[in-house]
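User: Teach me something about this protein's shape.
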Amino acid sequence: MNIVYALLAGLLPALLWLIFWLREDNLHPEPRSLVAGTFLSGMVVVVIAVFLEKYAADVILDEKYRYIAWAAIEEIVKFLAVALIALKSRYMDEPVDAMIYCITVALGFAALENALFILSPLDTGDITRSIVTGNMRFIGATLVHTVCSAAVGFMIGLTFYKNAFLKAISLLFGVILAIALHAGFNLSIINETVTNTLKVFGWVWLAVVILIILFEEVKGIMPKSGAREA
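Assistant: First, the predicted structure itself:
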């Protein structure tokens, strides 16, 4: 039963966030089957990330570099998931779609990752700690995954109607930015004091506000002369 509780605790908050972000694309909603597949792909790549992170932990001795490596692994596997499932789909037909699918993968990833974090204290009978862990993951880590993946989606959307070279440069910058943001979060919580944690979460919530603004910016991107560039 602990596994069921942990999965529910990881899934329900992520699904609530997903509903919230899908409302940003309410004029041209994406197919629910593709959204569901993208969400599930985010959960699947958690397994890949765990194995890669364990390997990184074995070969990288410096704690700071290890945290950076973990951030890079998670952002890259999340991007690969959305690239394989959604980015080549015929339904990816407007700039804002890139942000929607990147966020969906991120929430799927966060759902299973959070469940795994919550499962550990549940297995030891520490109910209070599992509740605190769930709340902190809901407030912090889930939003970090969302913001970082959304940064990639924003850069894809920004050059949606541009040529292949600009798209590639923009995508590369987006992935690097996502890794930098995620690594910054990881490094900032090494020393977990109450004051430090509140400051970090404050910055995360500010990033969410900025993300909402970026959604509006991407929605306004239109092809020149009504046609996409080659």
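Now, about its shape. Residues 162 and 229 are 5 Å apart (CA to CA). DSSP finds seven helices and no strands in the chain. If you'd like, I can walk through any region in more detail.
User: That's plenty for now, thanks!
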